[in-house]
Write a structure and sequence with these properties.
alpha+beta, Cytochrome Bc1 Complex, Chain D, domain 2, Neuraminidase, 2 domains, 5-stranded mixed beta sheet, 5-stranded antiparallel beta sheet, 5 helices, about 30% strand, globular, binds heme C
Length: about 475
């Protein structure tokens, strides 16, 4: 029996080494994460290798879980084996034997129970902790949120917060959280729900607030995709709602909605939609909305110089294609170029600079592999497909993105900040001439970072999950 395990662990080790050697070919712009504690048992290894990227290195997603599909060990093992395609849970029946799956199931159940019973570590512990270079402390601004997604700042200093479950609220300067009504029905399922918020660059004149969310195709089908609306705020009520865009086709899948919104200096509105979990069907074809970054006029019209206007069957809002699931979009404060990042598969998250009409290669080229460890492409580069500025292996699960355009943080001007869902930190990226010259972890272990914004007051605001809260980084000198 013991020797079987030895052989299995050896095989796994070889597989990992093989995977690493494959993925290191011509990958100079490659980022590694260190500091994950070494797993010891085979099931711990399996968990860390196959599952941790999505379910959390500390089994976060399984602690105190309301099981949706599985109510007993047999059903859990079944889900692991067959996956839950509509939700984005891959199948592992080819990567793991039934025995390994049963052991993994026992491990998840016992470990998550153990973690649930452990004395609770206070998530706000990190508040008041001082970080260095530059020194700042973390102020907890808002607590009691579900999954905060969109963050925006009104001219009077109030903060708008969109939570994925469909709650839109205004946080006032005197500390009240007031709910805003009038949203259209939001499909809060899987990775979808109420997502990003963005004010029009001339908000103080025209009052337009832009919102992305998962719309219901029709309530009966339950199919969905990302929609963009704009609306005005009147006494904490959305009025003058205009639907500017609806991603097509609507699908029953519950993942990869993308959906950040950003304006450029010419006033065009950009937004991202993920591949909706259908990588072989959508991202490389321009006849649909998925796996794309789109560009529209602020009122939803198609700019006549969009790259695929007039092309037969084309979705004319498309600005760039071949994307997987972009959840970061930010305009560089100096170059005024549009930067984005996207979730890769296992390995292969990317930071990209978005250019008109370009193909970013998903899934023809990728620095990642399938979740179950198998390879879907040998190519990391091909003519006609753009390379990322940086890719991450292992995946950090990037979410939210902002450039530090204020002078509040010494030495951070024009640095890029990126949230990591899976490794639970904020990444600071220093860029010179569109190349990454330094990377650094901030707020390590803070929780799943969903969004980062720099407010009009120049402070960095971070939206974190479990428990849902908004933090602000305050330089110590102040
Ligand atoms: C690509 C991301 C991803 C990976 C990798 C992944 N899962 Fe999942 N898994 C999901 C999603 C999404 C769901 C559905 C939502 C949920 O329950 O969190 C899910 C659901 C599940 C469920 C059912 C939960 C329920 O509520 O009934 C189990 C059990 C599970 N995963 C175990 C695993 C195990 C074990 C691994 C590693 C072998 C793994 N998952 C790897 C994304 C992933």
């Amino acid at each position: 029996m013991q020797s079987v395990w030895k052989i299995l662990s050896l095989l796994l080790l070889l597989l990992i080494l093989y995977g690493m050697s494959c993925m290191d070919l011509n990958k100079s712009n490659h980022s590694q994460i260190s500091g994950i504690s070494q797993p010891s048992t085979p099931e711990e290894k399996h968990y860390q290798y196959y599952c941790a990227g999505c379910h959390g290195v500390n089994l976060n997603e399984f602690v105190n879980k309301d099981w949706m599909f599985a109510n007993n060990p047999e059903e859990i093992a079944q889900i692991i084996k067959q996956g839950e395609d509509e939700m984005g849970m891959p199948a592992f029946g080819k990567a793991l034997s039934d025995k390994e799956i049963n052991r993994l199931t026992d491990y998840i159940l016992s470990k998550s129970k153990q973690l649930a019973e452990a004395p609770e570590s206070d998530a706000s512990d990190q508040s008041n902790q001082i970080y260095d270079e530059p020194e700042f402390w973390v102020e907890t601004m808002v607590t009691g949120l579900e999954i905060p997604w969109g963050l925006e700042f009104l001219p009077n200093g109030d903060m708008l917060i969109a939570e994925r479950n469909g709650t839109l609220s205004r946080y006032t300067s005197d500390g009240k959280l007031i709910q805003i009504s009038g949203l259209p029905p939001v499909r809060d399922r899987g990775q979808g729900g109420l997502m990003d918020l963005q004010l029009h660059p001339d908000y103080s004149e025209n009052g337009w607030l832009y919102i992305s969310y998962s719309y219901f195709d029709d309530e009966n089908s339950g199919n969905s995709n990302t929609a963009i609306i704009r609306a005005r705020l009147d006494s904490d009520q959305l009025t003058h709602i205009e639907t500017l865009y609806r991603g097509k086709p609507a699908l029953s899948t519950s993942h990869h909605f993308g959906s950040r919104i950003e304006f450029d200096t010419a006033g065009y509105m950009y937004f991202a939609i993920g591949d909706r979990g259908r990588r072989d069907e959508f991202p490389q074809s321009i006849n649909n909305s998925n796996g794309k970054i789109h560009r529209l006029f602020d009122d939803g019209r198609i700019p006549p110089d969009n790259p695929f206007v007039g092309r037969k069957g084309a979705e004319e809002s498309i600005y760039s294609y071949g994307h997987r699931n972009p959840q970061g979009l930010a305009l560089h404060p100096v170059t005024k170029e549009m930067w984005s990042h996207e979730h890769g598969p296992r390995g292969g998250d990317e930071i990209n600079i978005i250019q008109k009409g370009e193909n970013y290669g998903w899934p023809v080229i990728s620095y990642g592999i399938n979740y179950n460890g198998t390879v879907f492409t040998d190519d990391t580069a091909k003519p006609g497909m753009l390379q990322p500025v940086l890719y991450y292996d292992p995946s950090i699960a990037p979410c939210g993105m902002a450039f530090v355009n204020s002078d509040r943080y010494e030495g951070w001007k024009n640095n890029l900040l990126i949230g990591s869902l899976s490794f639970q930190y904020l990444e600071r990226v220093v860029i010179e001439n569109n190349e990454v010259v330094h990377q650094e972890k901030l707020l390590d272990g803070i929780g799943r970072v969903r969004n980062v914004r720099v407010g009009p007051d120049g402070y960095i605001y971070v939206a974190v999950e479990e428990p849902g809260r908004i933090l602000r980084l305050v330089p110590v000198e102040e």
